[in-house]
Amino acid sequence: MQVLLANEYGFCFGVERAVEMVEEAVNAGDTVRALGPLIHNEQEMQRLAHEGVTTISDPIQIGRLETAVIRAHGVTPEVQKELEELAAKVVDATCPFVTRVQKLAARAAAADRHVIVVGSPDHPEMIGVKGYAPNHAFVIKDETEVAALPRLRNPLVVSQTTIKVKTFFDTAEAVRAKTDDNVEIINTICSATKDRQEAARALAGMVDAFYIIGGRHSSNSVKLLGVCKEQCEKSFLIETEDEINAADLDGVATVGVTAGASTPNWLIDKVVKHLESIGRDQDAGLKP
Ligand code: SF4
After folding, report:
1. For 54-89, how does the pLDDT look when each residue is reduced to its tens digit (9 = 90+)?
2. What is this structure's pTM?
3. What is the CATH number of the domain that holds 272?
4. Are 124 and 34 in contact (CB under 8 A)?
């Protein structure tokens, strides 16, 4: 049985960078506390907890001798300031793609322009971005919410980094139709989610079974499962190698593997090794 990995899988650039920055702080001997879960993967959170990394839900919980971590989603300037005042050190792991949206929003607000951000208002990334354009930013889900916006002053339209391209451009066009003022549209969607889905789709059409490694509550992993199922009926979402049922691989010649953007490499390696050992057992004529 051949095990094939998708061309793009696992940690996105921003998550990998955040985990590396945390590791660096731990290795320097810091007591590290992340504001909000650093990553949506239980196994990786457990590994980090073993290294002494804990999570706080409010800046007030940080100790004077501790290191605070701002995760990839970013925070408002107020929260950043609070952490800087309270903690011994702040590790800012805001993904550079998110920082770009924050800076664009801040620049437009400083020119007294409105900022329309297409995304989920409750998402931490959106709460952070809105904080960079106080009294100037509106976070809206899609074009259906444009009509309810007030009169807009030379609006800038940007996006949450993980939304669908069509949602962004449909909303941007609705904003353009709403005002006679100049509308600036900047697509700030990051390609990580799309790249993983396209790579999974391409591989799923070539294999007999597919394993997607990721948390059951990770929305990008659940979406990957949907994409794979369209091409390969035997697609399974698993969190660890223990969930693989060898009987599902009876008569399977090729198996594909991908992983959500929060799944660490060590977890992916374990799954691949386990699949390879099932393949060797099959070759040796051993039944599951
Ligand atoms: S999905 Fe994109 S924007 Fe979000 S953390 Fe990953 S690389 Fe950064």
Report:
1. 999 999 999 999 999 999 999 999 999 999 999 999
2. 0.89
3. 3.40.1010.20
4. no
In the chain, the amino acid numbered 279 is: G
**pLDDT tens digit string along 111-169?**
999 999 999 999 999 999 999 999 999 999 999 999 999 999 999 999 999 888 999 99
Range of the domain at 107: 97-185
Closest residue to atom 5 of ligand 1, CA basis: 14
- Tokens standing for 109? 């607000």
Residue nearest to atom 7 of ligand 1 (CA): 14
Mutate to test the pocket of ligand 1, among 98, 165, 219 (most ligand atoms within 8 A of CB): 98
Is-catalytic flag, 125? Answer: yes
Cβ distance 228 to 210 under 8 Å? yes
Name the residue of 75, 97, 101, 120 whose CB sits within 8 Å of the most ligand 1 atoms, as the mutation to test its pocket. Answer: 97
Domain of 47, CATH number, reads: 3.40.50.11270
Q: How many residues in total does the chain contain?
A: 288
Contact (CB, 8 A) for 45 and 38: yes
Atom of ligand 1 nearest to the CA of 161: 3
